[in-house]
Design goal:
Elements lengths: L2 H6 L5 E6 L3 H9 L5 E7 L10 H5 L5 H4 L3 H4 L6 E5 L1 E6 L4 E6 L2 E6 L2 E4 L3 E3 L17 H24 L8 E5 L3 H17 L13 E6 L9 H14 L2 E5 L1 E7 L2 E6 L4 E5 L2 E4 L3 E3 L2 H9 L9 E2 L5 E2 L2 E6 L4 E2 L7 H19 L15 E6 L2 E6 L2 E4 H15 L3 H16 L10 H11 L17 H4 L4 H18 L12
Parallel strand pairs: 1-2, 1-7, 2-3, 7-19, 9-10, 9-15, 10-11, 17-20
Antiparallel strand pairs: 4-5, 5-6, 8-16, 12-13, 13-14, 18-19, 21-22, 22-23
Helix pairs in contact: 2-10, 6-13
Bound molecules: flavin-adenine dinucleotide.
Length: 496
């Protein structure tokens, strides 16, 4: 009996749709592996992204594949899941239907239960135009573009210095936002300049590069408390990072940014490479859900959910992870993982007729931020750790959570290269990594403008003319003959 007739016979299984393949989406789906349900996971990327290590992709330590394995592969052993590519553009709570879109094609999927784990994007606090000059750190595209911009700035500086130009703006790197991501980026760029690249250039001294970490807040790493924040600031300064606090960025352009300090002073910093690690904005799907359910949204676009993570008035819809505003929970991976597992357990329990679980309770397993090799800060319960012990803890925890055995092995190798040696295995960058996103942004509908409309694909135009076949065959025969006869590299006139 095929699927359609099974459904007609009334034995259709409970349909769960999961939006997103991040921490919430992946762990929620995995937690349903033994449940009597069919799951459709829809996500706008084909990979599961381990965001905490994005900065290592941006600075050439890891490859993108190591932190972003294909979701399809990760879930290939779980028979009750179908993974679909698509950006969810609509959720109809009344009809219980999700609509997704990819390259001009729309799909709809009906659900009985829905888990929304669409995460958060970068916030430019209403100045989205800054994004073109100061990429954020939320996606593989961001990390690869930043890698291109960072290593590209040193290349351009070498060229400029060789001509005798002033290259200060090329050797100045500004990171906006002194949270964990900003601290990690600033520390890594300082290590690149002072350690990794110091012997690679001739016209510039990379050690003279200026790395600035800016934040409007009065301390770095506010969620880690004043003591760890102050320790981190000192360590960053030892590494050669200029930490500027009470410094608000008021404008960003191609060649620099404007900063307004707490005492009213303003300054322009000339810099080609700006990195935005300052704010987050929950997925716009939060608004879609709020408009239909009346649930509140906070300033960061996070949606207020019930204590059991369901949407008010919709017990069949769970929202988890970075999208939710509940009990001041932080936007960290464990909140998404634990929330998604809770939602999955509730769905499974309902099908088995079990009573509802008590409200969701987050178990804080601690937080860590790395400053540079051998330096990190960690908070576990009341324990506060700094230096190499925190760094080793960071290493161990990240190894456990990287998805896939192969990725763990290669990540360890790359960490050996970068932390014990001074190399970076992943320094490859291309012009397209730096500029393709801006080019796509200039198209009205982005990548959709580059593909044929559905149904309009003209196969005949794509086929090689049959007459070319003979020519290609002859070319291949001649290539093989030249190799077999040992005639390569022999001057035609000298043939024997
Ligand atoms: C640079 C960086 C460093 C971090 N470091 C740490 C750390 O050290 N420790 C820590 O605990 N946390 C860290 N975090 C936070 C942590 O990564 C997030 O809290 C966590 O990823 C949230 O999980 P989520 O499932 O809610 O969202 P995400 O993991 O962001 O997943 C969202 C998913 O939804 C998909 N999606 C989004 N919109 C749509 C749509 N419309 N349709 C379909 N799919 C969609 C995305 O493609 C993605 O697959 C860091 C975050 C960043 C950006």
């Amino acid at each position: 009996m095929d699927t359609a007739s099974t459904q007609e016979a009334g034995t259709r299984r409970h349909q769960v749709v999961v939006v997103g393949s991040g921490f919430g989406g992946l762990f929620g789906t995995k937690a349903l592996r033994r449940a009597d349900v069919d799951i459709t996971m829809v996500a706008k990327t084909t990979h599961h992204l381990f965001q905490p290590l994005l900065y290592q992709v941006a600075t050439g330590i890891l490859s993108q594949g190591e932190i972003a394995p294909p979701t399809r592969e990760v879930l290939s052993g779980q028979d009750n899941v179908q993974v679909l590519l698509g950006e969810v553009t609509g959720i109809d709570l009344e009809r219980q239907v999700v609509t997704s879109h990819v390259l001009g094609r729309d799909s709809t999927i009906a659900y009985d239960s829905l888990i929304v784990a669409a995460g958060a994007g970068q916030s430019y606090f209403g100045n989205d135009q800054f994004a073109e000059y100061a990429p954020g750190m939320k996606s593989i595209d961001d990390a690869l573009e930043l890698r291109g911009r960072i290593f590209g700035a040193f290349e351009m500086a070498e060229l400029g210095a060789k001509r005798g130009d002033n290259v200060d703006h090329l050797l100045t790197f500004v990171v906006v936002g002194a949270g964990p991501t900003g601290v990690e980026m600033a520390g890594q760029i300082a290590e690149l300049a002072h350690r990794t690249l110091k012997r690679d250039f001739r016209a510039i001294n990379t050690r003279s590069a200026r790395v600035v970490l800016l934040d409007a807040a009065p301390q770095v790493l506010p969620p880690f408390g004043a003591k760890l924040g102050a320790w981190t600031s000192r360590e960053l300064e030892k590494l050669g990072v200029e930490v500027q606090l009470g410094a608000m960025v008021t404008d960003v352009d191609e060649r620099g940014l404007e900063v307004k300090y707490k005492d009213g002073r303003t300054e322009r910093i000339n810099t080609v490479t700006k990195i935005w690690a300052a704010g987050v904005q929950a997925s716009p799907l939060g608004r879609t859900l709020a408009e239909q359910s009346g649930a509140p949204l906070d300033r960061a676009g996070r949606i207020g959910v019930n204590p059991d993570l369901t949407l008010p008035g919709h017990p069949e819809v769970f929202v988890v992870g970075d999208m939710i505003a509940l009990d001041n929970l932080p936007g960290v991976a464990q909140v998404a993982i634990q929330g998604a597992k809770y939602a999955a357990k509730e769905i499974d329990g309902r099908l088995k007729g079990k009573p509802a679980q008590p409200p969701f309770k987050y178990r804080d397993k601690g937080s860590m931020a790395i400053i540079s090799r051998f330096r990190a800060v960690a908070m576990v319960g009341k324990l506060r750790l700094t230096g190499i012990i925190a760094w080793l803890m960071w290493l161990a925890v990240h190894l456990v959570y990287i998805t896939g055995f192969k990725n763990r092995v290669t990540a360890v190798l790359h960490w050996f290269v970068s932390f014990l040696g001074r190399g970076r295995s992943e320094r490859t960058t291309t012009e397209q990594q730096i500029f393709a996103r801006a080019a796509l942004g200039r198209l009205r509908r982005g990548a959709t403008d580059l593909v044929s409309a559905p149904g309009a694909y003209d196969a005949a135009r794509e086929l090689l003319d049959e007459s070319r076949r003979h020519e290609l065959e002859q070319q291949a025969i001649e290539e093989a003959r030249l190799s077999d006869a040992g005639e390569r590299g022999v001057k035609t006139g000298e043939r024997v």
